[in-house]
Amino acid sequence: RLRKKYPSVSIMLCSGGGGRIDYGVLQYFTEFWPSDNTDGLERIFIQWSYSFFFPAISICNHVTDWGKQSLKFRTDVAMMGKLGYDIVVSKLDENELLFSQQALQSYARLKDIIWHGDLFRLVSPYRHEHDIASLMFVSENQDKAIWFTYLISNRYCAGSNGVVRLKGLDPMRAYTIQEINIYPGADISTIIFQNSLSGDYLMTFGFDPMVDTRRPSVVLELTTHI
After folding, report:
1. Which one from 31, 96, 131, 179 is the annotated catalytic residue?
2. Which tens digits make up the pLDDT trace of 21-69?
3. Domain range spanning residue 74?
4. How much is the pTM?
5. Is 140 a catalytic site residue?
6. Is 112 a catalytic residue?
7. Helix 94-116 with 71-78: angle, nearest 10 deg
8. d(CA 204, CA 134)
9. CATH number of the domain that 130 lies in?
C-alpha cells in the first residue's frame, strides 16, 4: 500500500542488517543495503559479488568513516552503485569537502551510465595473480563509459603494471579518456588523454589506468564525439 501510494519515493531495504535481499521484495523497494561492512577495500569484493545478481541502481554504496582508506578511495568505490554519504560533513576539512562536492557533481552527470548501462568486468579482485580490481559501465549506445580501477594489494609496489583491456566499446568509434574524482592539490600525475583511441584499440591492446600505491583508485571517463 505504501509503494502504491508513493510510487516515486526512494525506499531502502535495510531492516535487520545488510544482505537481506531478493527480487521479490525489490518490487516494494528501490534499493537495498548489501552489508553493514562499509570498509572501502572490503566493499570492492562485496559489491563485485552482488553485481552478479543485482543491478547497480539497486545496490546502496555509502561513504562512511569505516576503514583506513582515504576519502577519495572510499568515494570511488561507492560510485560503483547507488552512492550515498553516512559521514559528518562538518568534520571534513576544506579539501575533503571540495573533493566530495566535485565527486557528487560528476556522479550526478554519470549516474545514468552506472545505473542503466552495461557492466563489464575487466579484472576480478578474486584473481590472486592481480593486484587490482577493474570494471566499467558502458552506455547503451556506446558513446560514453565510466571505468573504475582499484588497488587491492599494496605489497611489493603493487599496481596495474601495464594495460587493462576494455570491453563493450564500439570498435569503430574513437574515445577520449579523462580522469575524474581528482583530489584537490594532488601532486601526482592525472590522466587526460586528449588524443582519441579507437574502441578496437582499447579492447585489443588496452590502456594503463596507472594505479599504484600513490594512486590506489582511479576513475576514468570515456567519451566519443562521433
Report:
1. 96
2. 888 888 889 999 999 999 999 999 999 999 999 999 999 999 999 989 9
3. 2-116
4. 0.92
5. no
6. no
7. 20
8. 16
9. 2.60.40.1180
